[in-house]
Specification:
Blueprint lengths: L1 E4 L5 E4 L3 E2 H8 L1 H6 L2 E4 L2 E3 L4 E2 L3 E6 L4 H22 L4 E2 L4 E2 L2 E7 L7 H17 L4 E4 L2 H11 L2 H8 L7 E5 L2 E4 L13 E11 L8 E10 L2 H16 L2 H7 L3 E2 L10 E2 L1 H20 L3 E2 L5 E3 H7 L1 H5 L7 E3 L2 E5 L4 H9 L3 E2 L5 E10 L15 E11 L1 H22 L5 E6 L13 H17 L4 E5 L8 E7 L5 E10 L2 H4 L4 E2 L5 E2 L2 E6 L4 H11 L13 E5 L5 H13 L4 E3 L6 H10 L4 E5 L1 H6 L1 E6 L3 E7 H13 L7
Parallel strand pairs: 1-7, 18-23, 22-29, 25-26, 32-33, 32-34
Antiparallel strand pairs: 1-2, 3-6, 4-5, 4-7, 8-10, 9-10, 10-15, 11-12, 12-13, 14-15, 16-17, 19-21, 20-21, 23-24, 24-31, 25-27, 27-28, 28-31, 29-30, 34-35, 35-36
The structure holds one RNA strand of 76 nucleotides.
RNA sequence: GCCACUUUAGCUCAGCUGGUAGAGCAACUGAUUUGUAAUCAGUAGGUCGUUGGUUCGAUUCCGACAAGUGGCUCCA
């Protein structure tokens, strides 16, 4: 007998070799039907795998993340079975569960798969589900596994096995399909009730662009059709807040073939948002002791040779233009220009820290396939600044930058993000990373301490640092689930030396400053793209391109509306009168759809009482108010940058 | 850059198997003077992404290019 400990602490005895599924059955048939896998001593196992020793057991169902991913991974195998039956000779690489669903990378031997084939595959999978085949685990000696796939001529699985040790190779079979797989899997195909193959994509073998491209099929499955329907409905909802769609609808930005890919044109409404953001940045930076600078959009080749960007990142820059035998580049970053401002005058320790800020325009030649609405563009405006400081000042400066992030995030209500602390890889010192082991450890430690003391949750990622120092990235996700760095805060102990930046210390000796690169509001492009999705287009009043729309009941009240408009303008509130010859219902509908925060409805009653009927976007009629009262309320809401959506 | 798909009026989309295009909304004009999410009528608007080819004839078939979309790679 073995002793099984359950999550609630209960301990029961069972026959040695019993499976999690059998244990579930002994509790209730209903539970057994729901069990997808089991956590045995913290490891995810097949629910059908015999348990030989005393163990801590947790039965995993659809409600557990590990249960879901087991379900999806098994679905990938099911899809592979369908692919093999429809495309005989297909070779399979890997088919993992992902955040939402699964994929399988497949070599179809030069054949193409189309959208229609996905429907066929779904149909085949549904047939296979009806057979309710068990997923059978089998341990295979390495030699036997190699022989099996050598005979099959499957170089991909042979490659995988090559990296495994004898004794840790398992095969899983369901129905007619056998695959090399670590597992675990759900007991059988039956529970996969709802299947949707979402898209086809190319994916490089082993994620290396030098390798062959495999066909990747993405899919998602659920235990019931209802859940699939809900998921698809959710995707439809997400599409509605896609910044590319909203950006067009709200007149924020546009793209034009004649301008070029990745070069957004900011329309008047978008420009208002840009100006509000810059106002916020200027206020904040001025209060924090920054000095604003302005630098040209181009510079000579030599600058980027000094910075080290040209040898490493030339592919990311627009090709140079040649004038009088000298090459000029569009700037892809502002730092070298700012360094030159630092070195333009002799600096003393009394000038430090020197904080130079600029909403700098940069051009980056992003690969065509990488461009994505406003989130990934070739012309960007960066909320950039460089802080030159001594080592002693560094921690305080870095912390102040961090505080600025938090302040901004509070204003915008940004809560769903991950702070990523990117560190160096000691093995690559001198190659990918500047060879200053002590400085790396010292600055990494300083950064880590700031994060901990500021009580900011973060994840550490070794091998992701910049070549000149560790950094913090703020990772966010677009509505369609793509990950982006919204903002970045970087330590740089290399550029100072490359540019021979110096200041005279209190001891009269020259010293090289540490540099902090920071962009808490990222770029206008990405930040506004993010905000569009974050707010679903419903900007808080201070950011809204149009803050108040005055809606006269009929044109009899136009004079009153125009007087009101003047009062709003005098109070620096962005307002317009809807002077169209339309019914009030139509005016309200159109204004709601344009997501204007406030509507002032004025008719006979309001004129007589010298009031306005206030309507809040998305909330409806707020009743009638005195003009001064509502204007003062709006002024306050705007001045405090309230994100209150009441 | 790579794989796949898409590209018809300002927007959203129709347009069996090739015979030079249609709706709704928006725009414009007129009527209506309206009370909290679409008043009615009329008018105008398209070299069917660009460019080669096949064909008596191409929006429709094939190729190239461009832009976009979903991924992959990349992201200083």
């Amino acid at each position: 007998m073995i002793r099984i400990t359950f999550p609630d602490g209960a301990v029961r005895e069972y026959q040695k070799g019993i499976t999690a599924l059998e244990i579930a059955k002994s509790i209730s048939e209903g539970l057994a039907r729901k069990v997808l896998a089991a956590s045995v001593n913290g490891q995810v196992w097949d629910a059908t795998r015999p348990i030989e020793d005393d163990s801590a057991l947790k039965l995993l169902t659809w409600d557990d993340a590990d249960g879901k991913s087991t379900f999806w991974h098994s679905s990938a195998h099911l899809m592979a079975e369908a692919v093999e039956s429809l495309f005989p000779g297909a070779k399979f690489w890997v088919g993992p569960a992902i955040d939402k669903g699964f994929y399988y990378d497949i070599d179809l031997g030069g054949r193409q798969i189309t959208e229609e084939d996905l429907a066929k595959l779904e149909k085949k999978m549904n047939e296979l589900v009806k057979q309710n085949s068990s997923y059978v685990r089998k341990s295979i000696p390495k030699a036997e596994a190699l022989a099996y796939f050598t005979e099959k001529g499957d170089e991909y699985k042979l490659d995988l096995i090559g990296g495994l040790n004898d004794g840790e190779i398992t095969f899983y079979t369901q129905g007619a399909f056998t695959d090399l797989c670590r597992g675990p899997h759900i007991p059988s195909t039956g529970p996969i009730k709802a299947i949707k193959l979402t898209n086809i994509a190319g994916a490089y073998w082993k994620n290396d662009s030098n390798n062959k491209m495999l066909t990747r099929i993405y899919g998602v499955t659920f235990p019931s059709q209802k859940e699939l329907d809900e998921y698809l409905a959710m995707l439809e909802e997400a599409k509605k807040r896609d910044h590319r769609k909203l950006g067009k609808e709200l007149g924020i930005f546009t793209m034009d073939d004649d301008i070029g890919p990745g070069l957004p044109l900011w329309m008047p409404n978008g420009t208002i948002i840009i100006e509000e953001l810059e106002k916020l940045a200027k206020e904040t930076e001025q209060a924090a002791g920054y000095k604003r600078v302005v630098t040209p959009h181009i510079a000579k080749e030599n600058l980027y040779l000094t910075s080290g960007h040209l040898p490493y990142y030339q592919d990311g820059m627009f090709p140079p233009m040649e004038l009088d035998g000298t090459k000029y580049y569009l700037k892809a970053m502002n730092c070298p220009h700012h360094h030159k401002i630092f070195s333009a005058e002799p600096r003393s320790y009394k000038d430090m820290p020197l904080r130079l800020a600029e909403y700098g325009t940069c051009y980056r030649y992003e690969q065509s396939g990488e461009l994505f609405g406003l989130m990934r563009v070739r012309c960007l405006h960066m909320n950039d600044a460089h802080i030159y400081c001594s080592r002693e000042q560094f921690a305080a400066e870095f912390r102040a930058v961090n505080d600025m992030y938090i302040k901004y995030f509070k204003i915008f209500g940004i809560e769903k993000y991950v702070m990523r602390l990117s560190l160096h890889d000691p093995a690559k010192l001198g190659q990918k990373y500047i060879n200053e082991p002590e400085l790396w450890l010292e600055t990494e430690d300083m950064v880590r301490k700031v994060l901990i003391e500021s009580n900011i949750p973060y994840v550490e990622v070794p091998g992701e640092g910049a070549f000149y120092g560790p950094k913090i990235d703020v990772q966010i996700w677009s509505t369609i689930g793509r990950e982006f760095t919204l903002a970045t805060n970087q330590v740089d102990f290399a550029q100072g030396r490359r540019f021979k930046l110096e200041y005279t210390g209190a001891d009269n000796a020259p010293a090289t400053p540490l540099i902090i690169h920071r962009a808490p509001l990222g770029t206008h492009e990405r930040f506004i793209g993010f905000l569009l999705e974050h707010y679903a287009g419903k900007f808080p009043t201070w950011l809204a391109p149009l803050q108040v729309k005055i809606l006269p009941i009929s044109d009899k009240f136009m004079d009153y509306a125009n007087t009101l408009l003047q009062s709003l303008k005098n109070a620096d509130i962005r307002a317009e009168v809807d002077d169209r010859n339309e019914k009030i219902g139509k005016k309200i509908r159109d204004t709601e759809l344009m997501k204007v925060p406030y509507m002032f409805v004025v008719g006979e009653k309001e004129v007589n009482e010298n009031k306005v009927a206030v309507r809040r976007q998305g909330k409806g009629d707020l009743g009638s108010m005195d003009i001064d009262t509502i204007i003062n309320q709006l002024k306050h809401e705007i001045a405090t940058r309230s994100s209150d959506q009441e």
